[in-house]
Amino acid sequence: MKEIVLAGGCFWGVEAYISRKNGILETEVGYANGHVENPTYQDVCGKGTGHAEVCRVKYDESVVSLEEVLSYFWKIIDPTIVDRQGPDIGNQYRTGIYYTDETDLETILKTKEEEQKKYSKEIVTEVEPLKTYFPAEEYHQKYLEKNPNGYCHIDLSL
């Protein structure tokens, strides 16, 4: 089982979208790469914690490659916008790819380079090692599964 952590705006939609893909074994939403220990949702949304809303993705690389997982991710974000996706605005909604395995960096940068060819503006999606990660509160986990009419700016049919 491999792991990658993705920030693409509101974590509900990222989780709902990615979790439907073949080879994805587990998803969990949380907060990553900030400077506050065990933040709450309220902390992340308004107290300058530096955390991004993220989806931790565990996948079976014999079924789906990192390149494929990242191709799904690139489809659902606008990587040229700083601190915003859809109507969600704030540093916690920035886009990012946070890796736990240094050997994944080459693949990540290759997909970012390929994606850049689609845009005239520079891609601002962070690519960094995962420094900190804290699971979000239980009510955020599988939120759109629990709340089928819940808010989501991502087209889940892509």
From TrEMBL:
Q: Where is the active site?
A: 10
Coiled-coil features, chain-numbered ranges: none
Which InterPro entries does this chain map to? Answer: Met_Sox_Rdtase_MsrA_dom, Met_Sox_Rdtase_MsrA_sf, MsrA_MetSO_reductase
Indicate the enzyme's highest-level EC class: oxidoreductase
One Pfam entry name: PMSR
- Ranges for domain Peptide methionine sulphoxide reductase MsrA: 3-153
- EC number(s) given by UniProt: 1.8.4.11
Q: Name one GO molecular function term.
A: peptide-methionine (S)-S-oxide reductase activity
Q: Does the keyword Oxidoreductase apply?
A: yes
UniProt keyword annotations, A-Z: Oxidoreductase
Per its record, the protein catalyses: [thioredoxin]-disulfide + L-methionine + H2O = L-methionine (S)-S-oxide + [thioredoxin]-dithiol; L-methionyl-[protein] + [thioredoxin]-disulfide + H2O = L-methionyl-(S)-S-oxide-[protein] + [thioredoxin]-dithiol
Q: From which domain of life does this come?
A: Bacteria
Known role: Has an important function as a repair enzyme for proteins that have been inactivated by oxidation. Catalyzes the reversible oxidation-reduction of methionine sulfoxide in proteins to methionine.
PANTHER family (UniProt xref): MITOCHONDRIAL PEPTIDE METHIONINE SULFOXIDE REDUCTASE
Family of this protein: Belongs to the MsrA Met sulfoxide reductase family.
What is the name listed in the Swiss-Prot or TrEMBL entry for this protein? Peptide methionine sulfoxide reductase MsrA
Q: Which organism is it from?
A: Alkaliphilus hydrothermalis
